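Quarterly update, task 2.4: 2-acetamido-2-deoxy-beta-D-glucopyranose-bound model.
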Amino acid sequence: MKMQGFKRLGVLYLAAAVGVIVAQFEYHDSDTFDQIETLIRAVTPDNCFIMPKMKLYLPEDSVSHLPEIKEVNINPIFPNRTALHHLHNMAHSRAFFFSYILQSRFKRPALNASESTSEYDPGFMYYFLSTVADVAANPKINSSALYFQPNMAYSSSYKGFFNKTMPLFAPRAFRMDDYNDPVHLERLSTLNFFQVEDLGAIMPTGQRSHNYTLEDYRINEWYYSWLPHTNKRQDGLTTYQVKIRYANNTNETYVFHGPNAPDENPGPVKFTRPYFDCGRSDKWSLPAITPFADLYPRHTQFRHIEYPTLTGISVMEMDFDRIDINQCPKGEGNEGPNRFADTAKCKKDTTECEPLDGYGYRRGGYQCR
Ligand SMILES: *[C@@H]1O[C@H](CO)[C@@H](O)[C@H](O)[C@H]1NC(C)=O
Ligand SMILES: *[C@@H]1O[C@H](CO)[C@@H](O)[C@H](O)[C@H]1NC(C)=O
Ligand SMILES: *[C@@H]1O[C@H](CO)[C@@H](O)[C@H](O)[C@H]1NC(C)=O
Ligand SMILES: *[C@@H]1O[C@H](CO)[C@@H](O)[C@H](O)[C@H]1NC(C)=O
Ligand SMILES: *[C@@H]1O[C@H](CO)[C@@H](O)[C@H](O)[C@H]1NC(C)=O
Ligand SMILES: *[C@@H]1O[C@H](CO)[C@@H](O)[C@H](O)[C@H]1NC(C)=O
Ligand SMILES: CC(=O)N[C@H]1CO[C@H](CO)[C@@H](O)[C@@H]1O
């Protein structure tokens, strides 16, 4: 009698164990989140140099609900996309700023009128500090860069008739982790530590993989989103006006060329796929890209052979893992291309899935109600 009781217990125990194991495998059914996770884990700072190019990018639909300037003022902006909108707007503002500052060189008051007009250009330090300021002033922006096309960046410090351009010029600042710095005894990152360098400072030959204008650079999809660009028409680019009222009550309207207008197609800001920032910040990153314009070529003494041309791009980035994902099934508010759609574990018959903001790229940013 007693033995039988034990046997029955044994059988029950076995059944329970099998049940748990089977259920466990069912729970871990691999989904699209796991697929992306596998892609992300495959790339490390050590192996990214030898990875095939396609492995350094995530699929286009791994970021859903990208900001669209034509919908601002029509549709609300939800908290799960405010940081991306800020990224978009900051890039847009840089495009206006650098377009204006480069083209207005002929009308700004000269420090020394007897010097040549090259004096009116921003100094190179100005570019570096500007990219650092973008990152320092915006906690949600982790890198800011300006990439010029070959020989389109003019230096105010090169004197003489020709060769006033830099072959390549690309100041870029990104946020670094300083938690391991000996001066921070508490081992916490201050998030106030930046690395800034000129990515164009390379040898004139033999460094093709460091030339950000070439295919060999591999992670430069941002470059091809607007460049190379050489315009040969005076009316080839959208114009904007600045109205200035001076202290002596005279008014002046200054017209300059800039990025595309919001109602044009494409709009002023483009996003590319998330990419692994190999050999730089070594993180998965999402860039917002806008072009800035200049009158090119300069210093020829012949104004009529200058054309408004996109001479460079401003690229602002944030980390991929800070961008909220929506794991709920497709439906209203989640129509788009969305790789993570329908990976939530809500009971579909009795509950409705609702995304929660602030979770970033992490499972569980939703509630079933
Ligand atoms: C202005 O430029 C002239 C000619 O290069 C030079 O002699 C003069 O010292 C400069 N003045 C200032 C204030 O830099
Ligand atoms: C970089 O590539 C461009 C072509 O896009 C070429 O014109 C330029 O000379 C190269 N610069 C260097 C420094 O290799
Ligand atoms: C008013 O000030 C601007 C800028 O300083 C100057 O260019 C312009 O000649 C002045 N106009 C008059 C009438 O004084
Ligand atoms: C400049 O514009 C202001 C504001 O529009 C106007 O009040 C002022 O009279 C204008 N000045 C001139 C000289 O037209
Ligand atoms: C920016 O970088 C810091 C340090 O690596 C990281 O902790 C933070 O999540 C990043 N923020 C964004 C918005 O990408
Ligand atoms: C952001 O929130 C809105 C409103 O709740 C929702 O419709 C949308 O799908 C969410 N997007 C993401 C990426 O979570
Ligand atoms: C980088 C660059 O544009 N270099 C030019 C400098 O000027 C000489 C002629 O004086 C050209 O041969 C170089 O290509």
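Highlight for this quarter: The radius of gyration is 27 Å.
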